[in-house]
Amino acid sequence: MYVGSCNSGLLQTARLQLFNPKHEASTTTTRGIFYTGSQRTYITCRLRDELDLCTLKTESLSIKTFGSTESQSVSCDVVQLGLVTRNKEMTLIMALVVPCISNSLTTQPISYAQEHFDHLVGLDLADESGPSDILDIDMLIGTDLYWDIVTGDIIRGECGPTAIKTKVGWVLSGPMERENVTVNLTLTSTHTFRIDANHIEPSLDDRLKQFWELESLGILKNERSVYDKFIQQIRFNAQRYEINLPWKDHHPPLLDHLELCSKRLLSLLRRLKQSPHLLCDYDKIIHDQLSQGIIELVNRPAEMISDRTHYLPHHGVICQDKSTSKLRIVYDASARSLGPSLNDCLYTGPKFGQSILDILLRFRCHQVALIGDIEKVFLMILIDEQDRDSLRFLWVKDPLADQPELFTLRFTRVVFGVSASPFLLNATIKHHFESYREEDPEFVDSFLSSIYVDDLVSGSADDESTYELYAKSKLRLAEAGFRLRKFATNSGRLHLRIQNNEASDCSRAGEESLNNTQETQYGDQILPTQEEDQTYAKTSLGTNEKDKPSIQRVLGVEWNTNSDEFLFDISELASIMEGLEPSKRSIVSISARFYDPLGVLSPVTILFKMFCQQLCEARIEWDNPLTGALLKKWNHLLKMLKDARVIAIPRCLLWER
User: Fold this and answer.
1) What is residue 527's predicted lDDT score, i.e. its pLDDT?
2) What is the pLDDT of residue 416?
3) How far apart are CA 213 and CA 551, in angstroms?
4) Which of 105, 390, 411, 511 could form a disulfide with 135 if both were Cys (CB 3.0 to 4.6 A apart)?
5) CA geometry: angle at 326 spanning 542 and 450, to 5°?
6) What is the pLDDT, as a whole number, of residue 206?
7) What burial letters (b/e) apply to 45-70, b meaning 16+ CB within 10 Å?
8) Which DSSP string corresponds to 234-295?
9) What is the distance between the alpha carbons of residues 467 and 450, in angstroms, rounded to a whole number?
10) Are strands 162-166 and 169-175 parallel, antiparallel or unpaired?
11) Cα–chain-centroid distance for residue 471?
12) Which of the four pLDDT bands, split at 50, 70 and 90, describes residue 515?
């Protein structure tokens, strides 16, 4: 749909008299558009609210928009409303409700067309507007209703728009050009209709398809880049960087979710009160973050409301091992209630081409390897003041009280759990290091190709050059407010040198660790509880620290620094498999547990994938137990895993220590 300076095209708009069938006194006149490119009829939330229409049901739709080869699954409310024709007939309409149908239409000179084209003179038009008028569209009439309203009568002239008769008047469609007549339009614009609606979760079959397509190699589909806008907004305030959230250009209205968060908080408190020590630890983490300025109190929250005020529900995750019990507070930016989640309204941003496979392959090329991570990296980046109200959450003044009093907090830093956070971090680090490119281009390229969110996975040819890489990386990150720490290497001499250099920080880090340590009851034991501080990779890849200091995790892959080998142990999956009822669901779940970015386990993982494909081809239901030949194949795979030994391969491809 195109409007040009010398060839203005009219769209089939009409003024419509609508009413609520249950309350016929509730009427309104609004503007709609007849559009044969849509199979369904839609109205906006604004029109639904104005007529006070009740939701009859909710439908899940698969929508494919102009210019896209992919469909999007959305959920929409279905309502019924009435249309009054020019003959005072009443027609009932079933319509889907969406937040927005189109941006306002411009350059629709309907009245001008009737005055200047002879075949249109005297027609009872359904709409009127001038070249400079702005038209808001609140209803889109698709092919499910189009021919119930369009009569089929058409009037065409030698040139100019065509008139189409409908039960609400004549609508115009087509170009405005004619010989010796020029419409005075100086703006070229394009109107593309879009449907915004609530996302729905993909089906199990869709998830399985995505698993095959995107699995472990970091092969990701292209996303619309928001990096340019990010660069325009980022600033440094002498201590750390400050950024804005990457809002989608036309995101649906973001509700506050206050009621949802209140209910989930009360449920959380009931669970935590069963473990009072854990409840106190939860409370202490929040108050520690408050004292550090990571979060801040919202005074008079009911008065400080914007169109993007939003509350995040949260809960605790406990990771227990032999020596400690680690608590992590998780904020749910994907929570939905009668509207989109915060994540639905934000761009996830580009990935900058940093795949796990690329980083691990480069890591295998270094004779001396070095890894480290950035401490609490997301919390080191400030969020702009205007976006902080979208990161509110609730807590209580006295968590042990019978009737706890709620109060409102909000994040001042980037929140782990928001889908855009990895992009915001990557973009911030990239922007910071690019400022050193002219001074030291080789180091900048080396660092940026070795960082995965907050994990540094790098190395060099010898101890001296690797130590220089360590020192530069630590210094440059510190200048941006980040702390690089927890180093590991395959070189004993380099390890001692780094350890000596870090000694000055050890005493301070030890004091902070003591200050952040409490006691938590676990069974018959009292275990110290600490705020969990794992990196993004360890959290997202589901890996845990090993008891042996020589065993490290490198982007989810086990690395023995003493022998300088990667280790792969798949026998642990056998014990999990033995406790499962063999079904399509459990087998897909087991197949997804294989983590093999380097492809070392491909002879095994391919067998499981082929077996999953067999189950799909056999149309086995997700929870039906396997029988016959399929069960026999499953038992064979189980035995194979039980007999498997730990696989060890050299980390370095070019040199053996």
Assistant:
1) 38
2) 86
3) 31
4) 105
5) 45
6) 61
7) bebbebbebeeeeeeebebeeeeeee
8) -EE-SSSEEE---B-TTPPP----HHHHHHHHHHHHHHHTTSHHHHHHHHHHHHHHHHTTSE
9) 15
10) antiparallel
11) 35
12) very low
- List residues bridging with 261 in a β-sheet: none
What is the identity of the amino acid at 657? R
Instruction: Please state, in angstroms and rounded to a whole number, the distance separating the CA atoms of residues 428 and 571.
Output: 40
Q: What is the pLDDT of residue 531?
A: 56
Residue 184's pLDDT is 45
Side chain identity at residue 590, one-letter code: I
Q: What is the pLDDT of residue 339?
A: 80
Q: What is the pTM of this model?
A: 0.63
The dihedrals phi and psi of 484, each to the nearest 5 degrees, come to: -85, 130
Q: What rounded mean pLDDT belongs to the chain? A: 82
Which CATH number is associated with domain 2-190?
2.40.70.10
Torsion of CA 560, 561, 563, 564, to 10 degrees: 90
164 CB contacts (<8 Å, ≥6 apart)?
A: 12, 34, 150, 153, 154, 170, 171, 172, 173
Query: Is the separation of the CB atoms in 191 and 11 below 8 Å?
Result: yes
Model confidence over 596-627: pLDDT tens digits? Answer: 899 898 888 898 888 888 888 888 888 888 88
Report, as an integer, the average pLDDT of 390-415: 92
pLDDT attached to residue 30: 93
Per domain, the residue ranges of the chain are: 2-190, 217-535, 563-650
Amino acid at 457: V
Half-sphere exposure at residue 207, Cβ-oriented, CA atoms within 13 angstroms: 10
Residues 158 and 141: beta-carbon distance below 8 Å: no
Domain pair 2-190 / 217-535, same fold = no
Ranking 36-50, 56-70, 282-296, 630-644 by mean pLDDT, the lowest is 56-70
Contact residues for 318 (Cβ-Cβ < 8 A; gap 6+): 278, 325, 326, 327
Question: Can you tell me the mean pLDDT for 531-547?
Answer: 55
Beta strands 325-331 and 314-320, pairing class: antiparallel
Q: What are the contacts of 265-268 at 24+ separation with CB within 8 A?
A: 265/313, 265/314, 265/394, 265/395, 265/396, 265/406, 268/314, 268/315, 268/316
Burial 373-385 (b: 16+ CB within 10 A, else e): bbbbbbbbbbbee
Place of tokens 């092919």: 143
372: buried, middle or exposed (CB in 10 Å: 19+, 13-18, 0-12)? buried
Residue carrying structure tokens 């095209």: 9
CATH fold of 217-535 reads: HIV Type 1 Reverse Transcriptase; Chain A, domain 1 (3.10.10)
Q: What is the rounded distance in angstroms from the CA atom of residue 537 to the CA atom of residue 360?
A: 13
Torsion of CA 258, 259, 265, 268, to 10 degrees: -140
12 closest CA partner among 125, 131, 177 = 125
DSSP 298-358: -SSTTTS--TT--B--EEEEEEE-SS-EEEEEEE-TT--SSS--TGGGB-----TT--HHH
